[in-house]
Design goal:
Keywords: FAD, Flavoprotein, Membrane, Monooxygenase, Oxidoreductase, Transmembrane, Transmembrane helix. The chain has 431 residues and is α/β, with parallel strands linked by helices. Helix content is 29%, strand content 24%. Strand 5 (77-82) and strand 6 form a beta hairpin.
Length: 431
């Protein structure tokens, strides 16, 4: 197809998080014109850690991302420990050497580093094919006309497009326009706090020597009381200069009792952290003595929030508009949310190649939903079932892990496109 005479689509992306920037990259690579509208005045993402596994790294490699820009740490498996006894084991990912040979071996990094790399690929004037996306901060979207493919900003400005993509998170402005009603996330009874810890101080605490044992991988430190579980998820980022700590616990404000109140130890931390983790073994509780790293989002460096999950939605698409990522299927952060959003983004890049007409948008959005909604809904349900005893799991933890990371979203979307649209673009690349 002669790209010099083919009209690109005008595409509006609402939200400049991982999903929104990834969608902009994929659609830019298809040769489309992309505008991104972000409500915050600048990047205000909390500088927490994130993991990327085979499914998302396969896509990022195809987009030309530079792994070194993530200042990452290897993620070769998982270290599992009982939070009370300290007993446990380490498991190395199968086929690790093959993944390394393909440069899709998993990693952990700081979220801000990933966002900066995605932003470079989306809006940078670099070797990435397609025109650079335009990114507008401090541009809050207040409404969306799904049939016209337009949004209205808080300033009153209307922006028309061929396609509107709502990648604006759990409090999405676009979602009510898709569904015709307001649907909010359900509480799960689970809360967490997360922070970055100064890993250069680990040597000052001999009880933390376990951080340099086992394999190069996150530590899942868990205990279960009845139907409730409590957990630390700990891993290095920023070339091991920082430790990312996420602590999950059942919310005492929702259920009337915090499970971390058995003994008086750890009182010095109770003013810094929500609740006491005093019945965790001392080798793990000592993590809370490490200094935190302040961020723009929190002067103390500690953020706490309840962890909701979206109910399964009837649809993700309507007219010329759609939702993706957390706006469509926000779930618990234990289930590879970033990877799923990146998969959805590359699927859009394949389904909307240069030459797609405005009249074809609705049909291709239905194709996107067919390819992605079932997977997003399943991951949502399975993640909730792992913390809510009233929900039934349909697969084991191992089966879920394989399901999450084994998918080749590029190949899946190209095969679908070839079958249904008589085309198989190479994941959106244009000359």
């Amino acid at each position: 197809m002669d790209s010099s005479t083919t009209r690109p689509l005008n595409i509006t992306v609402v939200g400049a998080g991982i999903g929104g920037l990834a969608a902009a990259i994929a659609l830019r690579r298809s040769g489309n014109r992309v505008k991104i509208f972000e409500s915050s005045p600048h990047n205000t993402e909390f500088g927490a850690g994130i993991s990327l596994q085979n499914n998302s790294l396969r896509i990022l490699n195809a987009w030309g991302f530079l792994r070194e820009n993530l200042n990452s740490v290897s993620f070769d498996g998982i270290n599992i420990r009982d939070a009370v006894t300290g007993e446990g084991h380490s498991v190395t990912f199968p086929h690790l050497e093959q993944a390394k040979a393909k440069a899709i071996n998993a990693l952990t990094c700081q979220r801000n580093d990933l966002l900066e790399e995605l932003k470079r690929l989306a809006v940078g004037d670099n070797d990435c094919p397609g025109p650079p996306a335009e990114l507008y901060f401090d541009s809050k979207v207040v409404s969306c006309d799904t049939e016209a493919g337009s949004i209205t900003l808080e300033s009153g400005e209307a922006v028309a497009a061929d396609l509107v993509i709502g990648a604006d998170g759990i409090h999405s402005t676009i979602r009510p326009s898709i569904l015709g009603e307001s649907v909010t996330a359900d509480t799960t009874g689970l809360s967490c706090f997360r922070c970055l810890l100064d890993a250069t101080k680990v040597a000052d605490h001999p009880t933390l020597s376990w951080l340099n044992e086992g394999i190069e991988a996150p530590w899942n430190i868990t205990t279960v009381e009845g139907s409730h579980f409590s957990s630390f998820m700990v891993y290095f980022v920023r070339k091991r200069e920082l430790l990312n700590l996420v602590a999950y616990y059942h919310d005492r404000h929702r259920e009337g009792k915090c499970p971390f109140d058995r003994r008086g130890r750890g009182a010095s931390n109770e003013s810094r952290y929500p609740g006491s983790f005093s019945y965790f073994s001392a080798e793990f509780e000592t993590l809370l003595d490490l200094p935190t790293v302040p961020t723009t989002a929190s002067p103390t460096g500690i953020l706490r929030w309840q962890l909701p999950a979206m109910p399964l939605l009837s649809t993700w698409v309507k007219g010329r508009a759609m939702i993706m990522g957390d706006a469509a299927h926000s779930t618990l952060p234990t289930s590879g949310r970033a990877g799923i959003a990146i998969e959805e983004a590359v699927t859009l890049g394949v389904l909307f190649p240069l030459g797609t007409t405005g009249d074809e948008v609705s049909e291709r959005l239905e194709a996107f939903q067919e390819l992605c909604k079932g997977r997003g809904d399943l991951v949502n349900s399975e993640s909730v079932a792992r913390v809510d005893s009233t929900q039934k799991k349909t697969m084991s933890d191992r089966e879920l892990q394989v399901y999450l990371v084994a998918r080749d979203a590029i190949k899946t979307a190209e095969e679908y496109s070839r079958l249904h649209f008589d085309a198989a673009p190479s994941h959106g690349d244009v000359d």
